[in-house]
Each structure stands twice: as structure tokens, then as C-alpha cells.
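call fold(seq) -> C-alpha cells
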Amino acid sequence: MWLTLQRAGVRPSDLEDALQEVFVVVHRRLPSYDPSSKITSWLFGISVKVAAQFRRRAHLRREHSVEELPEQQSSNRHSPEQIALDLEARQRLVRVLDTLEPRLRAVFVMFEIDGMSCSEIAAQLDVPVGTVHSRLHTARKAFAAAAQREHLRGEGRTR
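ret:
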């Protein structure tokens, strides 16, 4: 569930709270669980919904806590300019991923970043492989469009 929350876009500083919220929802809804369906799919659905709630609330916060300062996260071999460029690239990636609908984002991250196969994703989500292919195709198109918008927005700032 931790990975699902990460893949669905919950900020690292909110992961513990989101995971706790998932367990609260599971406890509250356990009597309504249908044992004929896979529990992993049921938990995935709850996790994605909780992640969506946390992502909607995230825009209300102005501060972003980090465990380490960006300078401490990078190797001393990199120049300050390279450290700043790397940090900016990570922030752009997060902004682009944040535009994806949680179910699409999860499949996209599982395939493109975590390196899982479509059959592994299908088994984890308890959906047909064709559904994974469809979501991945849709997510890639949405990602490309959002990346293009982010690129154009970045060019507007540098002019």
C-alpha cells in the first residue's frame, strides 16, 4: 500500500498519514468486503482513493517539508548549477505526474519507473492485461501532453 500511495502521487511528507488513513478506511469498511474478490484489488482501490484525497489537499499547503536540504542530497562532485538543474528536473517530473489521474499514474509509474511488466501490474491490480495496456497508452499520451505544457511553461519563464 505504501508503494501504491507513492505511485499515486502522495508527497513523501504525507505518506505516513496517508497510510494510516488507508488503514482507518479498511477498518471501517472491512464488514462490507466481498471475499469473492481479491483483497489486493480492494486495498489498491482504497489506496488510490485516499491518495487522490491527499493530492487534492496538497495544493492548500504552501510549505513543502524535506528531510534533507537539496545540497545534502547530492554528491559533492556536482556543481551548484548541476544540483539546481537536477532539483528543477525532479520538480518538473512531479508536476507532470501530478496531472495524471491516480489509476493512470499508478500504472505509468509501475511500468516506466519501477520497471514492472504489464502482466505483473495486471496481477497486482487484479485487472486484465489489456486494461493495463489501455491505461498505459492513455497515461503515456497524457504524460506527453503534460510534459509539453510544462516545457512551454518553462520557456515562458526564461524569456
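Helices lie at 2-7, 15-29, 39-58, 70-73, 80-98, 102-113, 118-125, 129-158.
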